[in-house]
Design goal:
Two copies of one chain form a homodimer. By secondary structure, chain A is mainly β. In chain A, 14% of the residues lie in helices and 39% in strands. The longest helix of chain A has 14 residues, at 40-53. The N and C termini of chain A lie far apart (49 Å). Chains A and B meet through β3, β5, β6, β7 and β10 of A and β3, β5, β6, β7 and β10 of B.
């Protein structure tokens, strides 16, 4: 069964209907509302979903860059996909999201057939308490999307002094709420579920929003599927703040210490 | 004077001629040849150059993502720019590079009018010997572009055992050769001038090449101009290697410890 009633709210939020070759229609979801407009992670996942649905897709996502070009109004939107280039085992994509014929968001992506090779992880899996020992964060008022994730902060909760050794770092266990088996789409959204680092770095609350986000997927579909609904460990840090923008980098780990994705974004902030 | 003879080889390599609205023509440069095709950093800078030349540009580069979609043949190419969205103080861009009407590379970018705000740098400026105390790397045979940069390695030279504490890290002083005053274009190219981390991480030489690269610019035009021809400190590290791809992250610092840019890329490798 996958009627609208039994569908997970994430799947309902990123759902698309085909509207001719390379064209899809979607709709914002109240379940993933942010303070202004929809939670960006779900928009990014929706753009990726158009690629996942596309009959010409070759391989799985390796890289996804999302530009949040303008505020997205509540309601319907159109997506248009374009294969920029197809190689023997990889493919480059452009997806545009329009409202009233104006581009509000767009994404580029690389998909590829992954093959077994030598591998190693140089990022360091942090030693933190297990998820079950940490309390989930209550959903924030005026940001419904925060209720769609179970977030258990180790440290770096905005507004709470912490001694993590890094002034803009947060570490938290995160998974979909209600639980949903992990896939590229939910992982893409989780990569954007870190609060803006400027809120961790200083107490002042100012308008801030992601402008562009790039995610690299290190796991393949089978590995993500094997994780099921287990919590993921997210680590996010700011690098540089100034002149109205800052950048932050994040890692998403499995409970077993497998690095599933790394993600980087540039964020607008005021003052 | 800026005749072809007196032009810096970098400026000659990224030079464009306008070919109607939103269209430009360029040509690969033997001076920046890589083992196969042109050095990717110069291709990325060429794509950015189309935006820098565009009469409708609003503000300076904040973010640049380049997809290297297919091998670029020696010779001419066409560029086509498209403003995806213009906001009050920021603008989103797409630039395509085609050869024989096929997309060989493309870039998305954010430009914005930067304003003074609160700022801080959380990345850590490494303590290393000054450039003058380190010997420049001789240019590599079969990769002319390496002769276009003065690279003075602190550690992490491929094929040389080092004890930097990070298995895939390199730290080096770098600047254009011959010297050229820094701007967004040369900084964009320098962000792609780090050897693939897989060559630092293990002795085996295998085919490898950048597939997609994202750079965040933290400095504005005046700050870059003030640096002039001083060497920059580059730091690059791998994060995860496996299934045919790895990602690496880099920081570019001024001698005075100002973080000028951070950059992330995903790289294809064989075996």
């Amino acid at each position: 069964m996958s009627t609208a009633d039994s569908m997970h709210p994430f799947d309902a939020a990123i759902a698309l209907s085909a509207d001719g070759d390379d064209r899809y229609r979607g709709h914002t979801s109240p379940a993933y509302q942010n303070m202004v407009g929809p939670f960006g992670g779900v928009i990014g996942a929706t753009l990726l979903n158009a690629i996942m649905h596309h009959p010409a897709r070759l391989g799985d996502p390796v890289s996804l860059t999302v530009h949040y070009a303008a505020p997205i109004a509540d309601g319907g939107f159109e997506l248009r996909t374009r294969v920029m280039r197809t190689n023997r085992s990889s493919q480059h994509w452009l997806v545009e999201l329009t409202q009233d014929d104006q581009v509000a968001a767009f994404a580029t992506a690389l998909t590829a057939v992954r093959r077994d090779t030598w591998g190693a992880t140089d990022a360091v899996f942090p030693r933190v308490p297990p998820a079950r020992e940490l309390a989930p964060l209550p959903p924030l008022p005026h940001a419904a999307w925060t209720g769609r994730y179970e977030m258990r902060f180790v440290d770096g909760l905005p507004g709470v002094e912490s001694d993590s050794g890094h002034p803009s770092q947060s570490r938290l266990w995160i998974r979909d709420q209600p639980a949903r088996p992990l896939d590229f789409l939910s992982l893409a959204a989780i990569c954007d579920a870190f609060f803006p680092r400027v809120y961790v770095r200083r107490p002042k609350r100012v308008p801030a929003g992601t402008v562009a986000l790039t995610t690299y997927f290190h796991a393949d579909a089978a590995e993500l599927s094997a994780i099921g609904t287990a919590p993921l460990l997210g680590v996010a840090r700011g690098l540089n703040f100034g002149k109205g923008f800052f950048d932050q980098s994040a890692e998403i780990w499995s409970e077993q210490g497998v690095l599933l994705a790394t993600s980087h974004q540039v964020v607008y902030f005021k003052e």
